[in-house]
Structure formats: C-alpha cells, structure tokens
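QA checklist item 7 of 12: single-chain prediction sanity check.
[x] sequence parsed
[x] length recorded as 239
[x] structure emitted
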Amino acid sequence: MSFLQKIIDILLPPRCLKCGEIVSENNGLCPKCFNEINFISEPYCQKCGRPFAEVKKGQKMLCGGCARNSRSPFRFIRSALVYDEASKGMILALKFADRTENAGALAKWMFLAGKDLWKNDAEILIPVPLHYTRLIKRRYNQSSLLAKELGKLNGLPVDNFTLAKKRKTRPQVEFSGKERVKNVKGAFSVQNPENIKGKHVVLIDDVLTTGSTLKECALALKAAGAKSVDALTVARVID
C-alpha cells in the first residue's frame, strides 16, 4: 500500500458497503453484513445456475425449465448472490446513487461465481448497454463498471461498443411476465459483428429477474455470429 493510500485510509477509513461501519479494507463488508448475504453456491442447475434446495453430492442436474427448454440462447448463466433485502441495497446504490465504488467488491464475487465460464473458454466481456438517453441521464452504465472491474480480475477484454440498445424502452420494473418480453423485443443490435464472430461471449449485468433483457441481448449476439453466449450477474431473483 502506498504512503498516500495510508493517509487516505486514515482520513477516510474504508466502510462496509452495506451498513457503513468502518472495516479493515476497501470493497468489503463487516462480519455481520457478510453473514446476512445469501451467496449462490452449488448445488445449482448446470445451465442456468438456479440453486437447488437439495441434490446428491457430486450430481450435476438441470432445473425443470432448462430440461424442458432446449432453445435457450445461453450456454451458461451464473449469479453471485440472491437478490433479496440483504443484497439489493448495495446493488441499487451502485445503479442509482452514484456508489460506483461498489463495483469493485461486487465484481470480486462475480469472478468467483463465474468459475464455470472461465474454465470453458470465455473470451470477451460485454455489458448490457443502456439507451443513450438513459446513459446521459444516469451518467454511467453500472453493467459497464462491473465488466471493467471483472476484466481486471480475469484478464478478459471488455467491449462497450459492439452491442447497442437501439430502441428506448420503459424500465422493466414497470412490467411482469410476458410484458417484460414485449418491452425489450428487438431492442438490441450488434454494430460491429466482426468483434464477436466465432467468440465465446459473456454478458454482464447487475440483476437477473426474468431474463428477458439478457435473452434479447444473447439473441442479437448469436444472430451476429457469436459462437456462444453466457450471462453473469451480481444477483438473481429466486422465486
């Protein structure tokens, strides 16, 4: 640690990302908050990463949805946390409250959650894009910040320009079920297909709810020539 960093930590000590208590290092949680977070670990569906309540040790299984659906555009989907009362504050603070420093810690958990992707030849990270009007209003794309921090950890390049949101949509939180699918249908396009043709792409986003947005992104990437598409998020809703 540099002398300057030591001075900064004395004047502005690192704090827990969740409750604000002083902690020993940056980008961390205090013991109490860490124990409240529900991390996703095996056993989970080998395709979509949905956790199982119970499965025999060492047995690899698919959830009912993946067993029935052979047309998914994804190779793997993984998430680090369950999206619940314990985790959503950190994610919403990154997304809406300018707490961009949260991206570093969240990316570390994503890196661990993405082990199945890294060992299966993932080649490039692509954040889910915002429409330019929303990007101007928000001033940053939280998914892009997560991808940048993740790229530092796994050494993969980050592409912020190939996938674009060509149509402005209403926030997905306003919809449910099939209306979410309709809202983002055809909203994404690939501007430079040569950048992803024949590559194993990893889509990066903050939260997986129904998967409608990620699916539209994956369909656009596959249509443009991506060899495979995985998705990695900070958290996912478990219903």
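[x] summary fact logged: The chain has a mean pLDDT of 91.
[ ] second reviewer sign-off
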